[in-house]
Amino acid sequence: MSSVYLINFTSVGIFGMILSAAFCDIAWTQKKRRIMAGGMAAILAFQGIVYFFIGPSMAERFYPITTHIPLALLLCALRRKWFWPVISVLTAYLCCQPRRWVALFTVAVLSGGPMMQSVTELAATLPLLLLLVRFAAPAVRSISRYTISVQCQFGLIPILYYGFDYLTRIYTDLLTKGVLAAVEFMPFVCCMAYLIFALRTFEAERMRSQMEQTQTSLNIQISQAVREIEALRESQEKARAYRHDLRHHMQYLSSCVESGRYEQAQAYIQEISSEIEANKVTNFCENEEVNLIFSAFAGRARRHGIPIEIKAAVPQSVPVSESDLCVLLSNAMENALHACMKQKEKGLAGGIEVSVYERKGKFLLQIINSCGEDVTFVKGVPVADNPDHGIGVRSICAIVEKYKGIYMFQLKDDQFILRVSF
User: Fold this and answer.
1) 308 pairs with which residues across the strands?
2) Is 179 exposed, middle or buried (0-12, 13-18, 19+ CB in 10 A)?
3) What pTM value is reported for the model?
4) Torsion angle, CA of 240/241/242/248, rounded to 10 degrees?
5) Domain 281-422 maps to which CATH number in 3.40.50.150, 3.40.190.10, 3.40.50.720, 3.30.565.10?
6) CA–CA separation, 286 vs 320, rounded Å?
């Protein structure tokens, strides 16, 4: 019994030291490995001296002094930081629990005694160590790269368990006596840890959702910027062509005037003016951003032969940022134009009607476009089967919710209706 207990006592010490080193984020070199191996040997020798001279019971009580503190100091010296090595040692101590529970379960099932418990703990040591080093250690080490606040939250349970175990089981017998505070303490810790985990998960999910929405908005803004750059480039190319052809235009007009063909010269001037007018930004309202976006989409609609009617009364100052306004209108117009283009591909008529205005500090938008397809709605919002689609709708909803407004999507008589107000 004594020899088995001694071997088990030594094995759990080796188990804890190896696991502590695996949990600690150390760049292991050959020199550091030799130092760690020498430190472990010294700690085990110190444990043996204490075990044989003052007995197993006192050795267990002095275990923090003979093992945990020297081990933490050794890891601190190798890591050159103090906080995470301490957490690593305490976490390794917590991970000794599975050994104990495997043994307790085996003893309960087979009706064994203390000898069976020690043998089972000894047998479970190596497989458990390999599993923890292989699968748990990388995840634990990664937490050392987070902020101190996150490391503290992670290390809270190992710290509390360490203090609880020594105060209620080794230094006192409060747990075995069934003192209510001792019995209920760890369930309370588990409850609080679960609530903190739930809150942090919720906050992380909220932040991830916001980042996704921000990324989506940025992507839409980039797409819109690219479209505007292309429109400007096209306008510059046409302006360059007009400048290049200006001499020829003037020569032609001069010849018409000299020969008395005034009506032909007038018709030619009107033709050139119409071409220039067709390529300029239309002033739908006072707001320049709205004019740019509507002009761009109106031009695209005309090129695809899609009728479009725009009524806008938007002042230069509106209760929404320029970037959000561009993303909102661009997404709404893009979706409407895409639906009409699909109608046209099927040989069906389509069109777009846009009404947008600002009234008493409220921004209101309505877009009605042809839509010959069935649309699936979830909680009043159209959804797409393809996960890559529907980004525009999500962006619209996100912007409206940001300004605490309301939105409505509706399909009625082969027409899709979007209404936004905030």
Assistant:
1) 352
2) middle
3) 0.56
4) 130
5) 3.30.565.10
6) 15
